[in-house]
Amino acid sequence: MSSDLPSAIQQLPATVITPEASSARMDAIAAEVPVALVFNGISHAVMMCTPQNLEAFALGFALSEGLIDQPADCYGIEVQPLAACGSDPEAPGISVEMQIASRCFARLKEKRRAMTGRTGCGICGIDSMEALDLVPQPLPPLADWASGLGLAALQTAFAQLPALQLLNQQAGAIHAAGWASADGQLQVVLEDVGRHNALDKLLGHMAQQQMLGQAGFVVMTSRASYELVRKCARMGLPVLATISAPTSLAIQVANQAGMRLFGLCRGERVLRYSSH
User: Fold this and answer.
1) C-alpha to C-alpha distance for 187 and 238, rounded to whole angstroms
2) What CA–CA distance (Å, rounded) separates 234 from 231?
3) What is the pTM of this model?
4) CA-based torsion, 155, 190, 250, 230: positive or negative
């Protein structure tokens, strides 16, 4: 990865305003830059991301969106800064170029869609209702650890999360996605200004470290939108727990996939929304 990439945290001027006075200072601000995802030389998507862990992000995006079937379908990833982005010659941009298996690339070209991601994006860029892809393949029946997952493990994981949100400690405004073992011990946390990006970074990291298939669950500092549930289902991850509430479609997709979905994981209680 190039050393010329923008920093994940930038120091920018701000004015502190109180009832007594105003004062100027430099403030830590989360960076948000356009990242072009390029597959075999063809640009597929531009996502707004925190410029960190971008190789994991690209791999996780390719897997969770079904662009490749397995980590071995990725032959290499190269991250490079762009000299200019769009019409602003001083705006930073990043290109992440991935080489993927020919069969995956042929499928990608058939289904290719114009897609521009935003920090709060949902189903950006699809061109028809038929492209929604809402119904996941059912997962295997829940393992004993997943069906027995309870309050103590969830509380343990969420209690550990703030200390591992290193970027958020500096700047705020950054989501985190973490992977916890079945007893709630957090193993890894990845961060990004976008919740979808944070999850893709986590999934890509897990693929790189051969962690997929282990017993454990995903925790996130966001609401549970349907895309997050869909990504977990595609990766075969049976449990998602979020600090905020889910949407109705997220619950529907979790039930279709046979996942266990928890929301409002705060303090002395959590809510289980899925029927499994």
Assistant:
1) 17
2) 5
3) 0.91
4) negative
Same domain, 206 and 148: yes
Q: 276 falls in which pLDDT band (50, 70, 90)?
A: confident
Q: Is 111 in the same domain as 181?
A: no
Q: Does residue 139 form part of some domain? A: no
Per the residue annotation, which of 49, 85, 104, 121 is the catalytic one?
Answer: 121
Domain shared by 104 and 159, yes or no? no
Residue 127 is predicted with a pLDDT of 47
Can you give the C-alpha Rg of the chain in angstroms? 19
**Total residues found in the chain within this entry:** 276
Pairwise pLDDT comparison (203 vs 3), residue with the higher score: 203
Q: Give the number of other Cβ atoms within 10 Å of residue 84's Cβ.
A: 11
Q: Show the tokens assigned to 219.
A: 């925790």
Domain of residue 170: give its range.
Answer: 144-272
Active site residue 121: yes
CB 202 within 8 A of CB 226: no
pLDDT tens digits, residue range 95-112?
999 999 999 999 998 876
pLDDT tens digits along 112-165: 654 444 444 445 444 444 556 777 789 999 999 999 999 999 999 999 999 999
CATH number at residue 69: 3.10.20.10
Do 120 and 219 belong to one domain?
no
Question: Given 131, 163, 182, which residue is the final one in a domain?
Answer: 131
Residues 46 and 87 in one domain: yes
Instruction: Check whether residue 161 and residue 261 sit in a common domain.
Output: yes
Q: Is the dihedral of CA 83, 87, 90, 93 positive or negative?
A: negative
Residue 55: pLDDT above 70?
yes
Mean pLDDT computed over every residue of the chain: 90
Residue 49 domain-assigned (yes or no): yes
In-domain check, residue 5: no
CA distance 256 to 254: 5
